[in-house]
Amino acid sequence: MRFEYKKEKSVMLLHKSMYSDTPFKVAKDKLYHRCLQNKFNPHEALECANLFIKAYKKALTPFSPELISSRFEASAKQNIDSIKDHLMDNPLFEIFGNRAGIMIFSDRVNVYNISANNILLISLSRKCPKDFNFIFFKNISLKENLENIHENNWLTLITLFFKKTADIKTQIISSNARRSSIDTTHEILYNRAPFAISQTDCTWYTNYYYDSKIPVKGFWRHQRYGKGRKNSRLIFIKPFEKNGYHRKAKMLCSA
Questions:
Q1: Is the pLDDT of residue 210 over 70?
Q2: Which range marks the domain in which residue 53 is found?
Q3: For residue 49, what pLDDT is reported?
Q4: 15 and 81 housed in the same domain
Q5: DSSP per residue over 141-201, as a string?
Q6: Residue-wise pLDDT tens digits, 114-166
Q7: Rounded Cα–Cα distance for residues 96 and 119 (Å)
């Protein structure tokens, strides 16, 4: 399977919107009118809408999308309900600190910005960028905003929680570069976008199986020898192949 970022309309739309407010002008207008409906005065509603755009631009700068592996995403979805309780009682800023960025999931592209003053969560469909939902609120406990948080945006928070508390593995895919996926699918990732993308996997839940031979380049080594192995000499190890490896998920190793 090959994954080409050139076809990612939602990612390219985000990249384009770094230089223009147009893609999210509709969201800004919706937020403004929602504030008016909630009995904000026009000045407060406009201030809130402007803060939304400011937080959105901060999340996109520097522009560094992060591809979440399919296994990592599945684990996050399975644990949404159980981890929600850990996030309910404290402001997100106290849990995560200042965080901003972009996450690419199997069917969504999510943008987030968490600061001491406000929180922005946006989720766009990868197939149709016009299909998106967002939430923007001051940094208060989630219990007061639970009804307004869409499941797609919960996925962002759960993934951030995993990144903070579990072991992860990351690789950078440069522009116009090919890389093998770091999860168990080993699919080929082809980044044809004009910017680098990172891929993240959670090693806590993942079993790794690599049965192919692994080529090892020749190298120099200080070899100990003699009585008590007190002497050493420099020797050259010729290129060779070593066997693959199996590594259990860390969750199983600690059980």
A1: no
A2: 2-202
A3: 78
A4: yes
A5: -GGGTGGG--HHHHHHHHHHHHHHHS-EEEEEE-TTEEEE-SSTT-PEEEE-SSS-EEEEE
A6: 888 888 888 888 877 677 777 877 666 667 677 678 888 899 998 898 888 87
A7: 11
pLDDT of residue 237: 87
Domains of the chain: total: 2
Residues 125 and 227 in one domain: no
Q: What is the pLDDT of residues 31-53, one digit of tens each?
A: 777 778 777 788 878 877 777 77
Same-domain pairing of 26 and 72: yes
Asked if residue 76 lies in contact with residue 159, where contact means CB atoms within 8 angstroms, the answer is yes
pLDDT class for 193, splitting at 50, 70, 90? Answer: confident
Same domain, 139 and 226: no
Q: What number of other Cβ atoms are within 10 A of residue 243's Cβ?
A: 9
Q: Are residues 122 and 34 in the same domain?
A: yes
**DSSP letter assigned to residue 27:** H
Same domain (yes/no): 113, 228: no
Which of 66, 112, 114, 70 shows the shortest CA–CA distance to 90? 114
Are 20 and 145 in a shared domain?
yes
pLDDT of residue 185: 67
- Rounded CA gap, 171 and 161, in Å? 19
Q: Are residues 43 and 93 in the same domain?
A: yes
pLDDT of residue 207: 47
Count other Cβ atoms within 10 Å, centred on residue 77.
Answer: 16
H-helix segments, the chain: 9-17, 25-37, 42-59, 70-78, 80-88, 92-96, 151-165, 250-253
